[in-house]
Amino acid sequence: MLKTRVTEILNIKYPVIQGGMQWLSRAELVAAVSNAGGLGVMTSAQFSSKQELIDEIRKAKQLTDKPFGVNISLFPSIAPLPNDDFVDAVIEEGVAAIESSGFRAPDEYVDKLKKAGVTLIHKVATVRHAKKAESVGADIVSIVGFENGGALGMDDVTTFILVPRAVDELKVPVIAGGGIGDGRGLVAALALGAEGVVMGTAFLTTKECNLHQNFKDWIVRSQETDTVVVMRSITNTHRALKNKVSQQVVEMEQRGASLPELLGVIGGQRALKAFEDGDIDGGLGFGGQVVGLMDKVVSASELLEGMVSQAEEIMQKLNLQVHKS
Questions:
Q1: Which of 164, 109, 148, 158 minimizes the C-alpha distance to 240?
Q2: Distance (Å) of CA 68 to CA 71, 95, 96, 267
Q3: Residue-by-residue DSSP string for 112-162
Q4: What pLDDT does 325 receive?
Q5: Integer Cα distance of 171 and 244 in angstroms
Q6: Among 23-32, 119-128, 138-147, 272-281, whose mean pLDDT is lowest?
Q7: What ranges do the domains of the chain cover?
Q8: Distance of CA 177 to the CA centre of its chain
């Protein structure tokens, strides 16, 4: 019932993709999502070498025989990422897909990936970047709105507007992201013309996510108003959960703090330590407004099965209403 071009291209049961999340998209979560019928996506930027990524890919393969993907970050990084090596690792290990994301299209990898039969999903936050991604050869384009956790782009346009705009402009399948965490969001995305959804925040409170329980409990308690937009002053806008660090970043930006000043607060290693130690005020924790819909910790399988069941029930009700009218 939920078959789309996305499920066919990726050879997955449900049109649900787990977006790559720095430090958190490890083998256990990736495999759990893929085993549940979606596409798990591992982040490469959390590794410092090709071999580290290969080791994690092989670990995931021991946990699932289903397709999964690897995220390649094209965002600015304090330390240059060995993305060429990461792409080679994906190809050599026979990974099904790459999810690329960042300030530019992955032009330099398209030919290599197509020759290797690796599906390229490029994630964007504007329609113009979606069109660029299609033009350079992306097989699928994800577009995320202002509700999204993590990278937002600079235009502040919502998912409800971006998705139909992208669908009107593109021929390749479109995946919707931002504010989606249950079956209602999935049905809405399909109604807008998307052929799948990408979710990150919704997977933070899954049992298989290697996020400290303190953070999971905090997210469950959070409301849709408990996020804040940061890093706009350095044109790298992200949505984060409200804590002491994100509030500090907002205050620093308001007074015109320099990039070196900000880097001392927003650094990824600080976030990693907080995630591991359970200090919810220890670092930036990216998350979307969909935290307002997350009220319990569940397994990845329970999340996907519940989501799809709810979506099918809604679609049946809508179908009945149409036939009764």
A1: 148
A2: 10, 7, 6, 28
A3: HHHHHT-EEEEEESSHHHHHHHHHHT-SEEEEE-TT-SEE--SS---HHHH
A4: 58
A5: 44
A6: 272-281
A7: 5-211, 213-289
A8: 8
The single-letter code of the amino acid at 166 is A
CA distance 207 to 32: 10
Quick one: 48 exposed, middle or buried, by C-beta within 10 A (0-12, 13-18, 19+)? Answer: exposed
Task: Quickly list DSSP for 11-66.
Answer: T-SSSEEE---TTT--HHHHHHHHHTTSBEEEESTT-SSHHHHHHHHHHHHHH-SS
Q: What is the pTM of this model?
A: 0.95
Task: For the chain, report the end-to-end CA distance as a whole number of angstroms.
Answer: 23
Check residue 1 and give its pLDDT. 64
Q: Spell out the residues 6+ positions from residue 131 whose beta carbon is closer than 8 angstroms to its own.
A: 169, 170
CATH superfamily of 5-211: Aldolase class I (3.20.20.70)
- Please tell me whether residue 192 adopts helix, strand or coil conformation: coil
C-alpha to C-alpha distance for 72 and 83, rounded to whole angstroms: 7
In the sheet that holds 150-151, the strands lie side by side as 150-151, 238-241, 227-230
For residue range 284-299, what is the model confidence (pLDDT) as tens digits? 999 999 999 999 999 9
Q: Spell out the alpha helix ranges (H) of 222-267.
A: 244-254, 259-266
